[in-house]
Write a structure and sequence with these properties.
The protein has helices spanning 8-11, 21-54, 62-92, 109-112. It is mainly α and 122 residues long. It has one domain (8-95). Helix 2 packs antiparallel against helix 3 (62-92).
């Protein structure tokens, strides 16, 4: 907790002249915690989309299916990482932080995701 969580170039907190050094460090920590939560949130959608893509390979291209399942396994490791980070950060920061994006409000988001291809949406 003695370190800032994000570099100045990403955080831009150093441009807020009205903050003290400690306030800038704390602001970077809040930003870092939010980045970690956002990445964990996105990882959940990646796995959901990849699992959706596997349907086309269940009884077809076994190599493609295995590759997609392995990809999901790696993404699940990332989810675990971000789940572990949040309580560690929470223990060192004051109460009151809340990451409030709800998966329920985004239930249709995976239908709009187009992973691994370039070009306009169909």
């Amino acid at each position: 907790m003695s370190q800032k969580f994000l570099p100045d170039g990403l955080s831009k907190v150093d441009q807020l002249d009205f903050l003290s050094g400690e306030e800038r460090k704390f602001s970077r920590q809040i930003q870092g915690r939010t980045y970690a939560n956002m990445f964990g949130f996105v990882e959940r959608f990646i796995v959901a989309k990849i699992l959706e893509i596997t349907r086309g390979h269940w009884l077809g291209d076994q190599i493609a299916l295995e590759a997609l399942v392995r990809f999901c396994d790696e993404e699940l490791k990332h989810q675990e990482l971000f789940r572990r980070i949040e309580p560690m950060l929470a223990a060192g920061m004051p109460e009151g932080y809340r990451f409030s994006i709800s998966l329920m409000r985004c239930s249709g988001c995976t239908a709009k995701m187009h992973l691994g291809r370039a070009g306009p949406d169909p």
